[in-house]
Amino acid sequence: MPTLARILRHTFRFPLQSTLSLLMAILCTSLVLVLPGITVQFIDVIIGKNRPDLILSTAALGIGAILARQILFTLRTYFNNSLELKLTHLIRLELYDKLQRLPVKWFDSNSSGEIMSRVADDVPTMDRVVIEGIDQAIAAILQFLIIIGYMLYHSWELTLVTLAPLPFIGLLTAWWTRRAEPKWRASSEASSALNALLHDNLSGIRQIKAYTVEPEALEDFGRASKKVGDKHMDVMKGQSIVWPTVSFVAESGIILMVAFGAHWVLEGKLSSGVIMSFIFAWGFLFDPISRINPLSQTFTRGIVAAKRVFAIVDTPEETHLTEGYRAEKLTGHIRFENVSFAYGEEAPAVSNLTLEARPGETVALVGATGSGKSTTLNLLTRFYEPTAGRILIDGVPLADISKEWLRDQTGYVTQESFLFNTTLRENLLLAKEDATDDEIWTALESANAANFVRASPEGLDTIAGERGIRFSGGEKQRLSIARALLKNPPLLLLDEATSALDNRTERLVQQALENLRTDRTCFVIAHRLSTVQKAHRICVLDQGRLIEQGTHEQLLANNGPYARLCEATLLPNA
Description:
The chain is an alpha/beta fold. Helix content is 63%, strand content 10%. Helix 6 runs antiparallel to helix 7. The radius of gyration is 35 Å and the shape is elongated.
């Protein structure tokens, strides 16, 4: 019930449409009395009292009422569909906005396919509860009460006989609804798992083809697809027994009603017209009962979907995302003080790290894979929060600074260069919304990316493709560097920014990066040690610990871990 109430509260965001839908449902439902009423008129008055003069007016009244009901039904359908689309759009926007405000750590444990399933599938399934609640459930209850009132007016005894099957139907329906919810939840989770697997396989289709594991991938997909079918069949098995039983009990009731009614007509207690009107009324009375099956499915699936959506909505957001300290200018004095961080229960990725970067300095982080280099940058951008120690920027604790402001001051070129499936211009404008084409081309020239962009079919209007698939790894990385150049931030983070470049292109881009690093604080991660020789300070990490630091020449003279790294990479002058 709390979940249902929470869903229905969304309806009040559109009070006018919700009220109109409800009023039309009431008017449309009230007109169900016309057919039983004119049946009594035809049989007991027109036929029974020989009044042929009333045939035309009575028929016209019935046809007019049916026409009015259909017009109202058409309008009601339009308003309900419009309301559903608006609700779905609004909730999707809010859910997407919420996703953008969640910490990066949350995405580490939730697959993209699962999240897509909740946004694309669960939101409209949840909104069906609202629409069905207005269009079907309320109308069904109202129709049921109106027909009961009509029946009681003509014969309370025959009404009781007609309603005799209802307690059994109510108990059976309530029992099945409780049993069905966990079954629908399992079915929904299996569908999400299938979507997640499909998303992963499509994203990794080149790896699947490269390792010729198409049969294995097909087998995995087949198992996931079969599980969806099996979980859905768990629901269908129950429904194949429950709802035919409900129909049997309900339809048996009409036999009881006609039998008792015939007996009372013979005794003179009821007229033939009342019995005939009860037969028509029975159809309207049990029409809501016939909707129990689809309504039950809609409500159960909607509640399950809503719980999955609200699970995201209720997840705590990033703290200090927009609120927090905002300096007029970032000078770039960075200090790590005994900082530690671990991903879950694993061994610390960064352990008791203390290092400093003064304004305008370039600090290089080197070390073996898994030594904590990228984690250090992720802590600096507050994608993750330290589990111990603190980070200071210009003397202000990082925990007190607005994350939005901090990231606005930071240019981050990651190891995996990412381009959105839109134009190159729009990809670059992420760094500076009001940048002119001249500024864009200047950034592209500095990143040695202008030539291949000019050679592209549509220039800056070329679509990058999904994840930038239309460009090589080196080209994507140069475009990412151009994006950072266009942003021109006071704090620059380069995580293997030249790893996908050939030697010739690397030399050209290195000059651009040296120009970019001028008068700004820069952290550089590089496996190619040739790219960090000119850094003001080189920090060597091992299993999350800082084991030595100094300039290139100082560290070579120490003949320690850095010198051995240089020897391993055959660095000249090592």
